[in-house]
Amino acid sequence: MTGIIARASLAVMILAGAARADEFVPEPSGYRTENYRAPVPDRLAGARVLSTKEAEAIWRAKTAVFVDVLPRPPRPPNLPAGTVWRDKPRFNIPGSIWLPDTGYGELAPATEDYLRQGLRRATHDDRATLLVVYCQSDCWMSWNAAKRALSLGYGNVAWYPDGTDGWEQANLPTSEAQPEPRPTEQSTK
């Protein structure tokens, strides 16, 4: 009987260890290209990972550019003519720039240029400026965008993985955001 109990105990310990191992999310070598709302790694090589408390301290000190990369839902293509379309409001960390759709794993050249130009404007072309990149919790978009900022030569990148979800849970202020204009939008204004 003790042999059965010992084997059962061993099986429980192995399963418990496997459950803990499943919680670890390895950092991929490239960009994440699918299932963007899923558990994220606890690190990003070359970047600092911020807690909500750390992000708040940086925000209050006004020592960084906060970059929101949450995608913006497109206007449905099948709306009848004359239908009023209203974007769902985005509330983000006050003072952030919003560069929607720049956190996908693969970017069209125009979207990558939109990210590049948005970061250049926000940092006044100073690649040493601290960038705090975020989205929502368990959002690979922010991880991808922070990794991409590093690849664009920004040397002071922080990733805030809890994003607006963590910010709001801490009862910190948010403000309604508008996306940074895309180059074609800028030329028409």
Give a structural overview.
The chain is an alpha/beta fold. The protein has a domain at 41-74 and 88-182: Rhodanese-like domain (Oxidized Rhodanese, domain 1), CATH 3.40.250.10. Helices cover 38% and strands 12% of the residues. It is built from 6 helices and 7 strands, in the order αβαβββαβαβαβα. It has helices at residues 2-23, 52-61, 109-123, 140-151, 163-169, 183-187, and strands at 48-49, 65-68, 90-92, 97-98, 131-134, 157-160, 175-177. The strands form 2 sheets. It has a 5-stranded parallel beta sheet with strand order 1-6-5-2-4, with helices on both faces. Strands 3-7 form a two-stranded antiparallel ribbon. Helix 4 (140-151) links the parallel strand 5 (131-134) and strand 6 (157-160). It is globular. The relative contact order is 0.20.
Can you tag this structure with a few keywords?
two-stranded antiparallel ribbon; disordered N terminus; globular; Oxidized Rhodanese, domain 1; 189 residues; alpha/beta
Please outline the major beta sheet. 5 strands, parallel
CATH topology of the domain at 41-74 and 88-182: Oxidized Rhodanese, domain 1
How many H/I helical runs? Answer: 6
Uncertain spans: 1-21
Overall geometric form = globular
- Strand % is 5-15%
Straight-line N-to-C gap: 81 Å
Q: What quaternary form is this?
A: single chain
How many whole angstroms does the radius of gyration measure? 20 Å
Q: Name the helicity range.
A: 25-40%
Which strand order spans the largest sheet, edge to edge or round the barrel? 1-6-5-2-4
CATH class bucket of the domain at 41-74 and 88-182: Alpha Beta
CATH architecture of the domain at 41-74 and 88-182: 3-Layer(aba) Sandwich
Structural class given helices, strands, pairing? alpha/beta
The CATH superfamily of the domain at 41-74 and 88-182 turns out to be: Rhodanese-like domain
Mean pLDDT: 87
